[in-house]
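Support request from a user on the community tier.

User writes: "When I paste my structure tokens into the form, the page sometimes reloads and wipes my input. The last time it worked, I copied everything first. Here is what I submitted, just in case something in the input itself triggers the reload:"
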């Protein structure tokens, strides 16, 4: 067997070093040197090479039409929302990375999937590096599923692969990839080199054996899955779990999928018995909306292809600071600052005298420009201390000149608003001309922020 050689490679310039350095001596980049394994001779066909991933078939060139397609039969997970995000279920031999904040429910969903598949007679291996088998059993008791799942408390990659070869599971769950370490590397578990090497080995293993693998990954403070970005390139599917830990609602977002659509969103509710599908998230998100209160506007947002009605809230309060505060939750802070400046300039709201707080209720994150009009409506409503019409929704992008621009998925947004009983939709003028409103929904075209302010004054 060829022993791997450990080298230290700069991720910026590719220079190799004999030992780890805090700063690359070639390109002077800080903290860019990462440990990697290299084999000293060319590996035999089909054998694992460090960071060589995928199911390479011995390097034989083949005509695509001659390739016999292996079955892509998907396994249903028992959670419809998850199946939808995955593109219909788990594909054999696929590697899925599931990331999310601490306590969001990653282990819960993994055990639920394992429980459903085990109940259908499949062999499931749950490798737990963070919790003891007793802790996993306690969760299984609470969820009422997963008792047929085989738990393995192990963090050594080589041992995990050996056990997987012995047990031959249909699904291998690794909770979490940051706890796994390879004996071939000297760096600590959770380091960039370890996470990358272990994920690459597990992926190669999954492709070679056609065992589906679910890797659970922690999320850093900045919101990225801890470890190098290469982790996302290595795996087939990347899912992010998000939501406010205080509320029961959880969103599962597919940010990469080699076997299905990306940007698809699944909505779940976390309860004592685990996660359950939510078919009508808009209703739950709007359930606690205050009635007749200034600073609240409803936005029909579209996540992937999924419409969601969310409440944008703004609070403008007189500031005692020389530089008034601008705080946002669930929205892009720069964009919100620009929108408040536009509202200030175009509608003369004197926001420079106010602290401004803008958020999306329910722990939902909204990134799309279509949210602009709802944000401006909420700000205007709070600054004027006048509620917007209770049965109105708002969507449209706002430009720096105060103009309201068209956005995508107008019909989907309007349909969802009509379904939830809304009677009025404030939308870009050009979109209003193009779309057919659903029955019962009145379209109110808005050309500019100034027009919005006068419309709100008239219809409020
Ligand atoms: N008895 C309970 N009743 C209701 N919900 C519970 C109960 N126990 C745990 N939970 C929910 O489960 C969540 C923890 O789930 P889980 O352990 O799957 O999260 P995780 O993402 O794996 O966390 P970590 O990052 O710590 O591994 C809690 O935040 C809570 O919402
Ligand atoms: Mg966990």
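"...and here is what came back when it finally went through:"
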């Amino acid at each position: 067997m060829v022993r791997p050689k450990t080298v230290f490679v700069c991720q910026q310039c590719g220079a190799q070093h004999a030992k780890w350095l805090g700063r690359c001596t070639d390109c002077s980049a800080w903290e860019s040197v990462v440990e990697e394994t290299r084999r000293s001779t060319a590996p035999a066909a089909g054998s694992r090479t460090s960071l060589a991933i995928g199911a390479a078939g011995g390097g034989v060139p083949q005509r695509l039409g001659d390739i016999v397609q292996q079955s892509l039969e998907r396994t249903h997970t028992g959670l419809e929302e998850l199946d939808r995000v995955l593109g219909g279920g788990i594909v054999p031999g696929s590697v899925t990375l599931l990331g999310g904040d601490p306590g969001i429910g990653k282990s819960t969903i993994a055990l639920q999937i394992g429980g459903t598949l085990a109940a259908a007679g499949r062999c499931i291996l749950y490798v737990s590096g963070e919790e003891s088998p007793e802790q996993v059993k306690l969760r299984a008791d609470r969820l009422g599923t997963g008792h047929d799942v085989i738990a393995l408390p192990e963090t050594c990659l080589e041992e995990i692969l050996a056990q997987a070869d012995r047990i031959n599971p249909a699904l291998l769950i690794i909770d979490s990839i940051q706890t796994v370490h390879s004996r071939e590397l000297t760096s600590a578990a959770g380091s960039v080199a370890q996470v990358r090497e272990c994920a690459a080995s597990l992926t190669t293993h999954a492709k070679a054996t056609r065992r589906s693998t679910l890797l659970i990954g922690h999320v850093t403070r900045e919101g990225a899955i801890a470890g190098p970005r290469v982790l996302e390139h290595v795996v087939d599917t990347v899912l992010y779990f998000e939501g406010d830990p205080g509320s029961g609602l959880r969103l599962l977002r597919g940010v990469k999928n080699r076997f299905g659509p990306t940007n698809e969103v699944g909505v779940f509710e976390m309860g004592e018995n685990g996660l359950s599908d939510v078919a009508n998230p808009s209703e739950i998100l709007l359930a606690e909306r205050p009635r007749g209160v200034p600073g609240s506007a409803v936005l029909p947002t579209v996540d992937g292809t999924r419409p969601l009605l969310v409440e944008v809230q703004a609070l403008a309060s007189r500031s005692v600071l020389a530089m008034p505060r601008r705080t946002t939750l669930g929205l892009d802070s720069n964009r919100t600052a620009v929108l408040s400046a536009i509202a200030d300039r175009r509608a003369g709201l004197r926001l420079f005298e106010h602290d401004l707080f803008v958020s999306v209720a329910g722990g939902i994150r909204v990134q799309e420009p279509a949210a602009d009009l709802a944000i401006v409506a909420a700000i205007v409503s709070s600054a004027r201390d006048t509620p917007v019409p209770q049965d109105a929704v708002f969507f449209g992008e706002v430009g720096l000149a105060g103009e309201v621009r068209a956005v995508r998925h107008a019909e989907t947004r309007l349909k969802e608003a009509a379904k939830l009983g809304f009677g009025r939709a404030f939308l870009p003028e050009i979109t209003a001309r193009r779309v057919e409103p659903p029955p019962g929904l009145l379209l109110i075209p808005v050309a500019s922020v100034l027009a919005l302010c006068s419309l709100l004054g008239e219809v409020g």
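Agent notes: The reload is a front-end session timeout and is unrelated to the input. The longest helix spans residues 192-209. The longest strand covers residues 306-318. Escalated to web team.
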